[in-house]
Amino acid sequence: MIITLLTDFGLEDNFVGVMKGVILGINPGAKTVDITHNIKPHDLSGAAFLLRSSFRFFPKGSIHLVIVDPTVGSKRKAVIVETKDYVFVGPDNGVLSLALKNCGGIKRIIHITNSKYFLTPVSNTFHGRDIFAPVAGYLSKRIPLEKFGKEIKQYKQLDLPEVKLTKNKLTGNIIYIDRFGNLITNIEKEKLHNFIGKDKFKIEFKEVNFDKIDDSYAHADRGNPLAIFGSFNNLEISINQGNAKEYFQAEYGDMVKVGKV
Amino acid sequence: MIITLLTDFGLEDNFVGVMKGVILGINPGAKTVDITHNIKPHDLSGAAFLLRSSFRFFPKGSIHLVIVDPTVGSKRKAVIVETKDYVFVGPDNGVLSLALKNCGGIKRIIHITNSKYFLTPVSNTFHGRDIFAPVAGYLSKRIPLEKFGKEIKQYKQLDLPEVKLTKNKLTGNIIYIDRFGNLITNIEKEKLHNFIGKDKFKIEFKEVNFDKIDDSYAHADRGNPLAIFGSFNNLEISINQGNAKEYFQAEYGDMVKVGKV
Amino acid sequence: MIITLLTDFGLEDNFVGVMKGVILGINPGAKTVDITHNIKPHDLSGAAFLLRSSFRFFPKGSIHLVIVDPTVGSKRKAVIVETKDYVFVGPDNGVLSLALKNCGGIKRIIHITNSKYFLTPVSNTFHGRDIFAPVAGYLSKRIPLEKFGKEIKQYKQLDLPEVKLTKNKLTGNIIYIDRFGNLITNIEKEKLHNFIGKDKFKIEFKEVNFDKIDDSYAHADRGNPLAIFGSFNNLEISINQGNAKEYFQAEYGDMVKVGKV
Q1: Over the stretch A191-226, which tens digit does the pLDDT of each residue have?
Q2: Distance, in angstroms, between B257 CA and closest chain C CA?
Q3: DSSP state letter for C216
Q4: Residue-wise pLDDT tens digits, B49-79
Q5: Mean pLDDT value of segment B66-94
Q6: How many Å apart are CA C139 and CA C152, to the nearest integer?
Q7: How far off is chain B from C231, nearest CA to CA, in Å?
Q8: Inter-chain contact C22–A57, Cβ cutoff 8 Å?
Q9: Considering only alpha carbons, which residue of chain C is nearest residue A177?
Q10: Three-state SS for B156?
Q11: Are C238 and C230 in contact (CB under 8 A)?
């Protein structure tokens, strides 16, 4: 049984290793796979975006354990969400919400309260080790979800920038920047295609205009910018063999406009 | 059989991957788990602290392989230490010592000398690959410890700052700073409780005084400092949703005083 | 079956995790091992050097999946190379070439074209996920190589600095710098021994001369430079317990001369 891990714990300390130790102590047959642990500390929207872009590539039945938890020790809930194909475990602070909107259907949301499945004692600072890792470990042993707590009906949404659509303009934002400096927007391929139809268009980003969307980084000359649908199926601004973040001095939230011409 | 890895090899080069290759070549059924590889190069005390804070969270019987080895190729010994619940493997330079003091009892210390269990030839620069990884691999196949070398009686201690206790004051130091910037002291919960009893106290760190120890990061206002017993059970200075290292311009060794008032 | 991964994808994003998800979806029994993912973006020669220095430490039969792919989406081929003891998978852009020269014999090179073994649809930006990971997954299930495409005869070579040899001088270059700041040259042990024979020699690097090659870092005083054959069997310039990159302000390509005296 696969348990994926997505956290902002980094790889400098022992947080991730210890969580795996706890999981393997409960289920020696569990197989942990790191999605990433280098989410910027407390960056809920970055984590939510990567989870949404990752979960479906794992075998059905996988457990996705997500811990970005700036308010650990407060009254935010810990939850298990069973969906059509996966089980998600994490704090109910919005970090799961983008994946849950795209998961093909939620079956149950459980508010985790049964301390029988926690480490003893539970610290107030490291629920990853004391609550979430053991719960994921027991879930991977097929303990029924209702054992962990009561069903609830709602989960928390993230408050993210939304794509704005007028008759002639679609306006989005940079919502993620990857290691290669590719600038990923919240404009999804389908939304853009529906807007443009067969019309001519131009994409504006900072001082640069694009009149087409390329198929491949290699279609621009080396060092030149291009617009492309990246591997996440969102509109990206990139540089062939270069770094668009540096080229454009770009930041999260920067605006991208698609206009009809 | 689980083999944990704790090193200062980093993840930029191929050191860690190659060690895992060597282990799996000897025991294809071994399961390696990284504690961390981002110990600051040659930082024995950081590694010793993380090992001490990690080892007990793994299933009994796990092999803990620790390599921070600034004097590789010198006459420092390579050792296996069998304790009540775990087996430790590493250089005898103090890096194991904090864990061994807290391990519940040492059974045997073996000075590794039997080159039958080494790669051939042994380099003078990478004993992790040539000696420690293969020894851990063979240990995970339950080769008896006495095959690896002769028993010895002592292991090397680290020379670390100690908590100082006078009638009215307990003085400790920052001994670890984690990725979130939490400042972890060498003052353990039990020691502090024994000192304070039911008296009033204040904790001094740089220009800030604390008159209580919080239960949770969330008990301070966002961006405000607090004192807390962190997940390692040591007194920590933290900032709710912030970075105490930056806030205080703190460094390893900085003093923390607990005084009766 | 072991699948090693060597990429420039970094560990900040979800690229590596997603590839492992794809592999495990195809072969739940596959065991992935990271060599490194922190190759400098698009650094073919760094990746080629680490692959050459790593592959032989894994069990025979392992599949080595290498993805440093600056021209993804262009016409560069995707290949499988079957050698005496291993199978290599990656883009045919030279990144495999140093390993292949040292692999003990190539049996077959297959140009990957059969989209039956790809994810659908194939993006133009992330062949790691859509082509290479699934191909490695199917290879680990022992799908015969000829199913993936047609045999070809050649693979691309890297254009790397070569060691220059005159009667009295051997001139090489720094080709890799590891996390400890050790400066690794392209001068291999055997080549240097053949050149020197029993003559006296001196090694020049920047303003420093060495008249011997040490056995161990510990043979120099702490903080002092030395020449050594490192764990890769190449001549290295190092500092005992220090950082030669910083000490010498060294960079890739810097020249190292070995002269007879």
Answers
A1: 999 999 999 999 999 999 999 999 888 888 889 999
A2: 34
A3: S
A4: 999 999 999 999 999 999 999 888 788 999 9
A5: 94
A6: 18
A7: 6
A8: yes
A9: C13
A10: coil
A11: yes
**Pairwise CA distance, residues C37 & A178, whole Å:** 14
Q: Which two tokens stand for residue C165?
A: 């040899």
Closest C-alpha to A4, from A84, A86, A63 = A63
Tell me the two tokens of residue C225: 């430079």
CB within 8 Å: C54 and B20: no
H or E element, residue C51: helix C44-52
pLDDT digits (tens, 9 = 90+) for A90-108: 999 999 999 999 999 999 9
Q: Closest partner residue to B14 among C50, C217, C236, by Cβ?
A: C50
Q: Where are the beta strands (DSSP E) in chain A?
A: 2-7, 31-36, 63-67, 78-83, 87-91, 106-112, 149-152, 164-165, 169-177, 183-188, 201-205, 208-210, 225-229, 234-239, 255-260
- pTM (global) more than 0.80: yes
Hey, which residues 15-54 in chain C have their CB within 8 Å of chain A? 15-18, 20-22, 24-25, 28, 41-42
Amino acid at site C73? G
> Residue B12: which of C36, C215, C231 has the nearest Cβ?
C36
Is C21 close to A219, i.e. CB distance below 8 A? no
Residue type at A147 in one-letter notation: K
Interface A-C, measured as beta-carbon pairs within 8 A, has a size of 90
Dist. CA A22–CA A15, nearest whole Å: 11
Digit-coded pLDDT (tens) for B147-206: 999 999 999 999 888 899 998 999 999 999 999 999 999 999 999 999 999 999 999 999
The pLDDT value given to residue B1: 93
Would the CB atoms of C13 and A178 count as touching at under 8 Å? Answer: yes
User: Can you tell me the mean pLDDT for C89-94?
Assistant: 97
Tokens of A227: 């617009």
Whether B74 contacts chain C with CB within 8 A: yes
Low-confidence ranges of chain A (pLDDT < 50): none
- B12 → closest Cβ in C57, C62, C179: C179
